[in-house]
Amino acid sequence: MPPADLQPSFHVCIIGGGVVGLAGGILLRQQGFKVTVLERDLTLHTVRIQLHPNAVRVLKEIGVFEKMMSKSIIPVSIILKAYNTGQVLHQQFLEGPAKKYNNCPLLTLHRADLRQVLYDEAITQGVTIRHGIKIDASGVDLKGGTLTTDTSEIISADLFIGADGGESVIRTGLLGYKPKAIPHGKIVHRILIQEADIIARPHLKYLVEEPNIIVWLGPECEAVTYGLDGVFNIAFTWPYSTDPKDIFFGAQPVDLDEFRANLTDWEPDLREILSLGKDCLRWEFFEPITDDDHVPWVDDTGKFCIVGDAAHRGLPYLGQGAAAGIESVSTLAQLLGKATNQDQVRESLGIYQRLRKERTGHVIRATLKTGEIWQMADGPLKDERDRCFLQETPTVGYPNPLADPFFQEWLWGFDATKTANEAWEAYQIARFQK
Ligand SMILES: Cc1cc2nc3c(=O)[nH]c(=O)nc-3n(C[C@H](O)[C@H](O)[C@H](O)COP(=O)(O)OP(=O)(O)OC[C@H]3O[C@@H](n4cnc5c(N)ncnc54)[C@H](O)[C@@H]3O)c2cc1C
After folding, report:
1. How far is the CA of 430 from the centre of ligand 1 (A)?
2. pLDDT tens for residues 252-278?
3. Number of the ligand 1 atom closest to the C-alpha atom of 19
4. What letters, b where the CB count within 10 A reaches 16 and e where it falls short, cover 195-210?
5. What contacts 206, CB < 8 A, 6 or more positions away?
6. Which Pfam family, giving just one, matches this sequence (predicted)?
């Protein structure tokens, strides 16, 4: 436990009650801080996500592992297939890695279920959560060290943490301008199919009877599927305009017949499953954020900082967005827990920023690379990729980075507590040497 002179009276206010904000609330309470979470929405949205072992480890440490497992499915493997023939290019079994990484399996679950588990735990641990509280960028007062809500309430705290997602107003406050959303040139289409309808066709049953994450690798596109709660979730990443006038935010309905018409050369089994779909929604992807030293995640006085998508929004090709955010907020909480005065709070924020910019930058770049490799256009490069899949043993540079043992260990074996302890120790040594 940290010294009693700072933490109990030190009030941390987290803006955003997403997965990262709520996990942060619990982690900071566990370090002894007084914590309030401000969330603009009144309800939780249902999106299905994969949660990788590096995030599961943190949630195990928080104490919500059992509850989370009761809402999750543990996929047997990740299967990569050719989009047109359906040939299995690579199958990565997940039981071995789960054992290797602290008995932390890769899970699939509803983001809303995860948020609910975290919400309940946060309340139990004494976090104050206020719903329906929205902060606008104009309400962020860095100099005065306060926030003003959209209903003109002034909020004071010792530290404000922006966990308010990819459109973060705290990020805007730190930068002094609203960053422009730059189209990535891809969108995702999501189609949900009842598994009972698939099972009713015996020749398709094989796709759902065992829980697997299946990825069909297509030219400039990919389709990721997995089942959860009797529903088969299909997420198609698809090319889209980069013209700023075509930008859209949030979910848009799509004419499913029109979309299906693009898929005439895709594996017939996948097309047949898609024929069972009734509706489709799409979301636009934006260029991920990899900040250099000049972009602040922390203000000069040590009163504001950002975490999760607010700091390092990526793309979903490696299933790492929420995981990276959970890692970040765990690192942040561990470091803040070591501070015994305001100067050390500022120092710990600086260490957090340095550690997390470096690691999340690597994760984001690896994600982009994975997208390029998995979504290769037909041609000799793609043929060589497929030859590697089929003939090579996974090692550095293998086209499924999650199966490359070195990258996998770096990604899934991350330990935020150890990293924070080592960084703090190095800081203390440097301080005493001065
Ligand atoms: C298609 C897709 C698939 C994905 N799949 C995966 C996956 O499989 N695995 C994975 O790990 N990640 C995945 N991600 C990424 C993951 O969803 C995000 O990285 C993660 O949700 C970020 O969490 P967060 O808490 O930082 O932000 P958010 O989830 O965006 O939460 C921010 C919260 O802040 C609130 N808020 C925002 N602005 C304000 C304001 N001004 N005032 C008050 N409250 C505010 C919001 O209402 C929200 O509750 C995927 C993303 C996409 C788009």
Report:
1. 36
2. 999 999 999 999 999 999 999 999 999
3. 25
4. beebeeeeebeebbee
5. none
6. FAD_binding_3
